Amino acid sequence: MTSVVLGVALALATVGLSRLLPISQTRRLFAVLLGAAAGVYVGAAISAAGSPLTVQVAGFAAFGSMAILKSPWVLGAAWFIHGGWDLLHLLEVIPTTLPESYQLACLAADLVWGVLLLRLPA
Fold this sequence. Notes:
With 122 residues, the chain is mostly helical. The protein contains 5 helices and no strands.
């Protein structure tokens, strides 16, 4: 539960700071963060023998593609989809060496960020 609270707190702090930016910059910030979130799983797969690197790289490519489309709807949806990606790791459908606490915090942050981006004006 602590991980979820930390994930939500981080997400809300990021949302608060993003309010200081123009909307176009806010979208760019969350597009970069999406790539970074997917990249963490790739990094974990590279560092661990037996991790499904090809699956993580495919996920990274998919999330990166959604991030560069610059549509607020696609970017918001991508954060919800990344939450599903986190859930697949939590359920051990896709193995990872990342701690469960990271996966829970990331899932919580993903959902908050998805809501924010879907609410931004077009």
